[in-house]
């Protein structure tokens, strides 16, 4: 796993190329298999591969031109929230975990993936006909990378001395 986590495809430029449905199906499965608190599985995923919908979502994503190119997965949460024993809300945490699993599987499939949170919640919800009370945690942008070379993420991450300790702060 670690080599694939460390060396990631660059999603800043993606090819104008459809993502096959069987690949999308595997990404959705990776999301569904994610752990969640009390196994609540608060997620609902919407895969978007229709060009008209992608163009509409591009507008909701403030004109991000990558939206119309590959495919998108909207990671939505379905139920009322649950307060975890640590005092924080479960839904966004679980949706983040599931999105991470989708992104890892995407990497394995040769795709570049990026979570987008810069979008109009109301506009995107309308486009995807979300029922009242449901929200989109993130829109995962997926596409075949324009450049073949993977990036070494270790050059971008904070030094371990700053972010990791053993046994105490
Ligand atoms: C929760 C989350 C939300 C993000 N939202 C956006 C976004 O709205 N638009 C965007 O271009 N990138 C977004 N990103 C991508 C981050 O900016 C990116 O992962 C970070 O800068 C590291 O860069 P890299 O993954 O390209 O190396 C988001 C990432 C995460 C984890």
UniProtKB/TrEMBL annotation:
What are the alphabetically sorted keywords of the record? Oxidoreductase
Every Nitroreductase domain range: 16-62
- The organism's superkingdom is given as Bacteria
Stored Pfam families: Nitroreductase
Q: Does the keyword Transcription regulation apply?
A: no
Q: Which family does it belong to?
A: Belongs to the nitroreductase family.
- Quote the protein name from its UniProt record: Nitroreductase family protein
